[in-house]
Amino acid sequence: MDVGNPVSGTSGLHPYVPDGRIQRRTTVFDVVRWAMLVVWIVVMAVAVTIGSRTSHLSDLESELSTGSVTSVRITPGMPSGAEGANTQSVFWRDGLLNHRADVVMITPGSNSSASSFDDTVAIRSGYDIAEQIADQQPRVQISRVPEILSYAEAFGFQLPMWMAWFTLVGAAGTFLVLVAGPEPWHATRWAWFWIMSTGIGPPLFLILSGPTPPLPAPRHRHRRLTGGWAFVIALLIQAVLKR
């Protein structure tokens, strides 16, 4: 995306980079960038306080076996004698974070097949996962919560639906700065695009792609990350976040 010839005396460097640290005047895109950073900070704050981190039922079962979880909240199951499949959501708190795991309950004798469901969701046989949790850890406190039909997602957390407006504004504003704003620092536009696809990338882009006091500007010898390497890094980050 860079065009033109290198600045005299800086062979192999990008044309927008002068001697010493990069100098750039504040533009309207920097104002938008800082505003979008505030939006994403709000989203992250809501995520870790009232949001629920997407987890797996096996995570809860491991914590129940150690006694680290003392209470869970569960959406309604099926009445005894019913037939079919039903998805229940289980909520619990571990340390500072809330967690949520979905489980598909298939009743005995049902024609429903486990292979017809997403393999990322736990599959159990029975009418109500609450019964199995109580059998595993009789001391755990179980309470019922209504089924949540819709929610927003950000940074691997499930958030209240009203937060979808914040994530939409944050995503649109960040993409605008990436595409139409000044040439970003530290990485090319394509590199930042791949980094942003990891979920944690938007705040990093908004902080590092331009002047953000009190962070110092990069020096002229700093080489920018290119799209190919950024793609590989993004794959590694996504693999770590899904663990």
What does this structure look like?
With 243 residues, this protein is an alpha/beta fold. It folds into two domains: 28-48 and 160-241, no CATH class; 53-154, no CATH class. It is built from seven helices and eight strands, in the order αβαββββαβββαααα. Strands 1, 2, 3, 4, 5, 6, 7 and 8 form an eight-stranded mixed beta sheet that branches. β7 (152-154) and β8 form a beta hairpin. It is elongated, with a radius of gyration of 24 Å.
Which terms would index this structure?
single chain; 243 residues; 2 domains; 7 helices
Strand and helix layout:
Layout: H1 28-49, E1 52-54, H2 57-66, E2 71-74, E3 85-94, E4 97-106, E5 122-125, H3 129-136, E6 141-144, E7 152-154, E8 157-159, H4 164-180, H5 189-196, H6 201-208, H7 227-241
Parallel strand pairs: 1-4, 2-6, 4-5
Antiparallel strand pairs: 1-8, 2-3, 3-4, 7-8
Helix pairs in contact: 1-4, 1-6, 5-6, 5-7
